[in-house]
Amino acid sequence: MEAIVVNNLTKHFRKAYDKTLKGFFISLVKGEKRHQEFTALNNVSFQVKKGESYAIIGKNGAGKSTLFKVLSGIIYPDSGTVNVHGKVAPLIELGAGLSRDLTGAENIRLNCAIFGLDKKTIEEVYPKIVEFSELEEFIHTPVKFYSSGMKARLGFSIAIHIDADIILIDEVLAVGDKDFKKKCYAKMNELRDSGKTIVIVSHSMKPLRDICDRALILDKGKVVEVGEINEMIDKYQSDKKTKKKKKQKGA
Amino acid sequence: MIANIKKYKELMYFLVHKELRIRYRNSLFGFFWTLLEPLGLMLIYTLVFGYIIQLDKGVSPYPLYVLAGLIPWTFFNNSVRKGTRALSGNASLIKKVYFPREIFPLTMLISNMVNFIPAFALILVLAVVLGHPMQWSELILLPLVILLQALFTLGVALLVSILNVYYRDVEFIINLVMRAWMYMCPIIYPIHMLTGAEVSSTVKDFAGLYFLNPMAVIISLYHQPFFPDQGPEIKYVIYTVILTVVLFLGAWYLFRRMNRRVGEVI
Ligand SMILES: Nc1ncnc2c1ncn2[C@@H]1O[C@H](COP(=O)(O)OP(=O)(O)O)[C@@H](O)[C@H]1O
Ligand SMILES: [Mg+2]
Fold first, then answer.
1. Which 37-76 residues of chain A touch chain B by CB within 8 A?
2. Domain holding A210: CATH number?
3. For residue A16, what is the DSSP state?
4. Fewer Cβ within 10 Å of end Cβ, chain B: N or C?
């Protein structure tokens, strides 16, 4: 049984353009194209099995967050197909789905509602989320006053409590403190063992070896290779090293 | 849309509740602000346009006339202005989670409507206090007028909210347009001013086009129960209903289409 099936996914972005009507009219008069296209995901295909833990590794700008955004429906692909079986909890980049002006408590309720929980369930999971995040003291403070680590705590706690089948975790743990990271990795192991599908983007390879079964290497929007986690990480790291060496030689 | 509304009932409730609470949290008069604002404007307009510029000919009592037009106008005005930022003001959410984005303009409209209903009751209270006669047969049709206005407003809000994501200056244009639009509606002056003897001939030439403005028709419908001679002709009402439906469907279609890139350009 597959949880995620992606076939020949391609996504172009338009490079930032003048977001005004003036810009629109000027380019209309000049008859030029208003934006350059940029390929963020290029013919990406892969599958994630149900209950599997899957890592996506790649450099900054490789398209990892873009891929997650397509998987969770935030942006539309230009071509290719994306099939996701089950409810997705996306934790994309810092501040995942948190509204700055709302308090932590309000953000919990808002996010639960976004993921379709009803009132009763929200009241049930609310204390659990607060407890896991260890933010009791700050829960009535607006999120704009949270540190990035606190936002990560809140985001992660919400994502694991909304009863999703698939959890996408994008670098959110990079800013957490050691203890919380430990707790999260333990939780991820627990979730995986209970049959949830987890897809992780991370630059800390050690925990990935622990948690994940397989990995995909993404480079400049293209899939380089898919395979067993340790193999992929070794390959990724040796690739990096050889590139560095080449550079040194060149210089 | 209906299926989404059911599925996201809790979310819509939350957003409406939040909108209302934020609006009243920091103000001393709380909920009464909704009532005090139009009453204050009514006083100002009565002083300026009734006594000083004397636009009050033929509609008496003038304060009631002003209030009956001003309150539905305020509903429209607030909804459109807030509607412009309904999506762009929620960028942090839209970039990180998916849910149907039309929920933002929709909940914005609902929370404005919640403010509008008690303000609307104020018109009735004023009419009773002033002992002004009311046309009951037309009064009971007002819920339909409110519905018509809500649909028209939602159409406009959908349109401006999505356009403002792509072109940020829509917000500034809208501010100007709304001001002009208000003077194109019978709020501070009665409609027979347009065809009266003292009016210049250019105004008379364009008077025939006046009711092509759907908001002029809608505001006149609100006047009708209190000032029967200020109501619009039935052909203009039919025109407005058709226009509203077309606008709403068009706005809906455009919203759906432009929604596809909202997640990346916002
Ligand atoms: N909304 C956007 N509009 C235009 N370009 C974008 C947008 N989002 C990302 N990009 C570009 O797409 C590329 C991949 O970005 P991203 O998926 O965030 O990379 P990462 O693998 O570091 O998460 C980057 O070059 C980035 O500049
Ligand atoms: Mg990223």
1. 69, 72-76
2. 3.40.50.300
3. P
4. N
